[in-house]
Amino acid sequence: VVTRGEMVLLTSLGGGMIDDVSVRDNTLLWGSLYGVEPSRMRTLLGDVLEWAGIAGYEDAKLRTLSSGTRQRLAFSVVRHIATDIFLIDEALSAGDVRFRAKCRAFFESDVNRERTFLVATHDLDFAQTFCRLALWLDEGQVADWGESGAVVERYVAAQAQGSTSERAPVAAAGR
Fold first, then answer.
1. CA dist 85 to 37, 43, 61, 69, 174, Å?
2. Single pTM value for the model
3. pLDDT digits (tens, 9 = 90+) for 41-68
4. Spatial CB neighbours of 51, under 8 Å, sequence gap ≥ 6
5. Is the distance from CB of 170 to CB of 129 less than 8 angstroms?
6. How far apart are the C-alpha atoms of 89 and 82, rounded to whole Å?
7. Are strands 133-138 and 141-147 parallel, antiparallel or unpaired?
8. Which residue of 9, 26, 60, 87 sits 20 to 30 Å from the alpha carbon of 115, by its own alpha carbon?
9. Inter-CA distances, 108 with 93, 103, 112, 126, Å
10. How much is the pLDDT for 128?
């Protein structure tokens, strides 16, 4: 795999966070996992917490947050890190309706930026709306590849005919 630019992996949001440590320290820790200096993360802290919907909770222990709130925090950290390539594995399916709307707005605002998103998803609307290309995998085999709208149409038709596994997602979509 050849990449041009910095890459961030969004899977298992919140992996590596520590329950008995404050939200602030976990935010600094997660930023450092992505190579962001603690001083830079400190300047981003207010924006990260505001976007996650937990402003004022920086001193709370992580264990006091719900799993959905932890995921919002983790996504917010990554969202505030300037990167060129995002690898996302169903990370956006978590959270409440308002959080998913924020994630959608994040992608909508990035449509014309020079960033790449590689997304594993079962969300066909997301794939058609935000992705130029799609790869459909069925039981680990390439079933289709091409323009996302066309791939999604063929995937839906195959699902309706029962000719594909129910588990088969539009596995990777990028723009």
1. 19, 23, 31, 24, 10
2. 0.67
3. 999 999 999 998 899 999 999 999 988 8
4. 76, 79, 80, 102
5. no
6. 19
7. antiparallel
8. 26
9. 16, 9, 9, 11
10. 86
